[in-house]
Specification:
- The complex is a heterodimer.
- By secondary structure, chain A is α/β, with parallel strands linked by helices.
- Helix content of chain A is 36%, strand content 23%.
- In chain A, helix 3 runs parallel beside helix 5.
- The longest helix of chain A is centred in the C-terminal third of the chain and has 18 residues.
- By secondary structure, chain B is mostly helical.
- Chain B has a single domain, classed as ABC transporter involved in vitamin B12 uptake, BtuC (Orthogonal Bundle), CATH 1.10.3470.
- Chain B has a two-stranded antiparallel ribbon with strand order 1-2.
- In chain B, helix 2 packs across helix 10, helix 7 packs across helix 8 and helix 11 packs across helix 12.
- The longest helix of chain B has 30 residues.
- The chains are: A alpha/beta, B mainly alpha.
- At the A-B interface, helix 2, helix 3 and helix 5 of A face helix 8 and helix 9 of B.
- The complex binds adenosine-5'-diphosphate and magnesium ion.
- The site of adenosine-5'-diphosphate (ADP) has 12 residues of chain A, from strand 2 and helix 1.
Chain lengths: 264, 317
């Protein structure tokens, strides 16, 4: 489904701020894989997701979604295949537009935007039903401006928007990190439900090791722009936080893991 | 005072005509979140194209359409400088504006101004709007339906209806999303570069149309007729917003507020001139100061007053 082959990315090349954020990263996801991604600050997790989403071109390597080589495609064209939720709740929605308008924009992801009405009457009923499932009381506020919603409500809405048109790949970048623990749990719950229901191929970055272990069928840990650990299947099911810390230490030859990773 | 009241129909007519330009500014400044300085040039482009074509006997609607298209071409130039060449929007607009100075003069045959011959009654009757019609209606020699306030009012209403429809379509909504949040727009598959170019074209098309109407109204086009247009446009947008934002929530009404804002601007300017007898050359300074103050108010509010406002903002975030 997703095939990342030997990608490199260096920011600010040739300046004092030069930073190699991805070093020869390869990763292959099967259809329906739910992969959690952990790693210390600056390990390259967001950079990996941004490379897949096409926020900027990679320096070398290639990225395939299904059989399509998307390496050269700009961000808005890759959006046809990809649903995204960002860490910053402000980033995934248009604050000055209504809830239903945001959803209608998302419903047209990957389609040509024509001179037909931006939202059709029958869509509204559909949206109301979908919002009910989130259980945040948004179903009665279809025409409210998104700017009036709380961070948690906005993330939940962004999640809904990312999956409204079933994406071939769902990218979640610490999408619960900015929320209070209760809301975070609710949004994560909704994530699990939606991913299971549509069997979505998913990459989810999290700063919480426990979440990374509980969710998904595979776990990768990044360190200094490389994938340092990759645990799947039965091994992942049996994993504990202690195991993870120990294996991280082995893989990177350091014992700094404790401070860097036990953030959650 | 009587003199001032006598000038009102003219001031309202002018306000309505400039209001169309201000609606163009609204599209870039408010919807796309771009400060586009092309307008100071494209306003004159519209006037110049219109006057020259009209002078050669071209049908008035064809001449207006040509002005609109010329304005859109100017918007296209700025849009491509910004998106395809990566030049910051403000600078891209300034570059186009500067280039247009020469182009506008070239359109007018290298003359600083070109008149519409309105002493020829046949020519005058072909016009859609003219300052003379204001006087004619007052004298009773022309029906009230030819009064510029009526004609441009209708024109503006039709324009607002079309824009209301357009920004409600899938394409229009994608433009609004581009202005509201580019990250979100791209993540939802919207080509934000295309949206910006299209918005700039639409905006400058309207600005040029407004210039064409003003050239008709005053019966000449002038190379410097667009100087400071952006400030007048911003003034209209801000006045409309300050006065009506609490009551006008609907998009069509917001556009109407811009048009009314423009009328108020012209009536106030006229009042200042008629009642104080100030040299009209000071009007630009007054406009600049008023717009600067109104632009600064939201900033002052958030920086120097009530910290609770900012806290409240975070809670809603
Ligand atoms: N757009 C950018 N410009 C410059 N440097 C960047 C950019 N994005 C990320 N970096 C740098 O790349 C490294 C990896 O960042 P990131 O992928 O965001 O880490 P994280 O694993 O915490 O998500 C960091 O050193 C970061 O400063
Ligand atoms: Mg990150």
């Amino acid at each position: 489904m997703l095939d990342i082959r030997n990608i490199f990315k260096t920011f600010n090349a040739g300046t004092v701020n030069e930073k190699t954020a991805l070093q020869d990263v390869s990763l292959c996801l099967k259809d329906g894989d739910f992969v959690t991604v952990i790693g210390g600050n600056g390990a390259g997790k967001s950079t990996l997701l941004n490379a897949v989403a096409g926020v900027w071109p990679v320096d070398s390597g290639s990225i395939f979604i299904g059989d399509t080589d998307v390496t050269g495609l700009p961000e808005h064209q890759r959006a046809r295949y990809i649903g995204r939720v960002f860490q910053d709740p402000m980033m995934g929605t248009a604050a000055t537009m209504q809830i239903e308008e945001n959803l209608a924009l998302a419903a047209r992801r990957g389609k040509r935007r024509t001179l037909r009405p931006g939202i059709a009457g029958k869509e509204r009923d559909e949206y109301r039903e979908l919002l009910k499932i989130l259980d945040l009381g948004l179903e009665d506020r279809l025409t409210s401006k998104v700017g009036l919603l709380s961070g948690g409500q906005r993330q939940a809405l962004t999640l809904l928007m990312a999956t409204l048109q079933k994406p071939r790949l769902l990218l979640l970048d610490e999408h619960t990190a900015a929320l209070d623990p209760k809301t975070a749990a609710k949004v994560l719950d909704a994530t699990e439900r939606i991913v299971q229901k549509d069997r979505l191929t998913t990459l989810m970055i999290t700063h919480n090791m426990r979440d990374a272990i509980v969710h998904g069928n595979r776990l990768i840990m990044m360190h200094e722009g490389k994938i340092a650990l990759d645990i799947a299947g039965e091994a992942k099911k049996k994993l504990t936080v202690e195991d993870l810390l120990a294996r991280f230490g082995q893989a990177t030859g350091s014992d700094e893991a404790d401070d860097k990773l036990l953030l959650g | 005072m009587m003199a001032f009241i006598g000038t009102l129909p003219g001031a309202i007519s002018q306000g309505l005509i400039w209001g169309i330009m201000a609606i163009g500014v609204y599209i870039t400044y408010r919807i796309l979140d771009i400060a586009d300085l092309t307008v100071d040039g494209s306003f004159c482009t519209g006037g110049a194209v219109f006057v020259v074509l009209f002078g050669t006997g071209v049908n008035i609607w064809a001449a207006l359409l040509a002005a609109l298209i010329a304005g859109m071409a100017a918007g296209l130039a700025t849009g491509l400088l910004h998106t395809a060449c990566g030049i910051p929007a403000i600078l891209a607009g300034i570059l186009t504006q500067l280039g247009l100075w020469s182009i506008n003069l070239a359109i007018m045959g290298m003359k600083a101004n070109v008149a519409v011959n309105v002493t020829n009654p046949e020519n005058l009757n072909r016009l859609l709007v003219s300052l003379r019609f204001v006087q004619d209606v007052a004298k009773g020699t022309r029906p009230i339906t030819r009064h510029p306030v009526f004609v441009v009012g209708l024109f503006t209403a039709a324009l607002i209806a079309v824009l209301y429809w357009f920004f409600g379509t899938e394409l229009g909504a994608s433009l609004r999303a581009t202005g509201a949040n580019q990250n979100m727009a791209r993540a939802q598959g919207i080509n934000t570069e295309f949206g910006k170019v299209l918005g700039l074209m639409l905006s400058n098309g309207l600005v040029a149309l407004s210039g064409a109407l003003l050239a008709q109204y005053q019966s000449f086009a002038d190379a410097s007729m667009g100087r400071g247009a952006i400030v007048i446009g911003l003034a209209a947008v801000i006045i409309g917003q300050v006065l009506f934002s609490r009551v006008f929530r609907n998009f069509a009404l917001k556009l109407l507020a811009v048009s009314i804002g423009s009328i108020i601007y012209y009536v106030v300017m006229q009042a200042v001139v008629s009642l104080s007898g100030i040299d009209t050359n000071y009007l630009k300074l007054i406009s600049a100061v008023i717009v600067a103050v109104f632009l600064a108010i939201p900033y002052w509010k958030s920086h120097y007053f009530s910290k609770s406002v900012r806290k409240g903002g975070k809670l809603h975030a």
